[in-house]
Specification:
Length: about 160
């Protein structure tokens, strides 16, 4: 697996699984009816932030991550990131590789911590992955997310030092 900078040419490969994940409404706070162009604008970040794709040896996009400042001004030393793995390629370590890549990027860019603002508590796979990489739950906003089948569930704020 290779992780490289994403370009606008990657969007046609990202969009199908991005749309599937967002439309499911189970893990992201994006509107479930988010359109292709607005999704692209929200996901493909301009420098100094970064968006990457994980690709296999044939060049197939397996997943993607975006990495950015979590805050501005006097809080600009805190990074954040989001990850999406094509469900057709889940269970192959793509999410872990993307998360580790984002931690390395943030450390190299001089960030002191990484913070995730809205980890849906029912997203057990993500919570387990983040914990295994050293993230802690700082707190949970009760009923902060309206899950399509579970109803109102909590949103974790997670962080780790870099």
């Amino acid at each position: 697996m290779l992780i490289r900078e994403a370009t606008a040419r990657d969007w046609p490969a990202i969009w199908p699984f991005f749309h599937e994940i967002v439309a499911a409404g189970e893990t992201f706070t994006y509107p479930p009816d988010l359109g292709r162009e607005q999704g692209r604008d929200w996901w493909l970040l301009a420098p100094t932030n970064r968006t990457v794709v994980a690709v296999d040896e044939a060049g197939t996009v397996l997943g993607t991550a975006k990495m950015n400042n979590n805050h501005m001004g006097n809080g600009a030393h805190i990074a954040s990131a989001s990850y999406m793995v094509d469900p057709a390629h889940s269970g192959r370590g793509v999410g872990r590789a993307l998360c580790q890549y984002s931690l390395d990027w943030a450390r190299a860019a001089g960030f002191r911590r990484m913070q995730f603002n809205a980890v849906v508590e029912t997203n057990a796979h993500a919570v387990r992955l983040y914990r295994s990489l050293g993230f802690e739950v700082l707190g949970t906003l009760p009923e902060g997310f309206r899950h399509p089948t579970e109803g109102y569930v909590g949103l974790h704020i997670m962080h780790r030092a870099l």
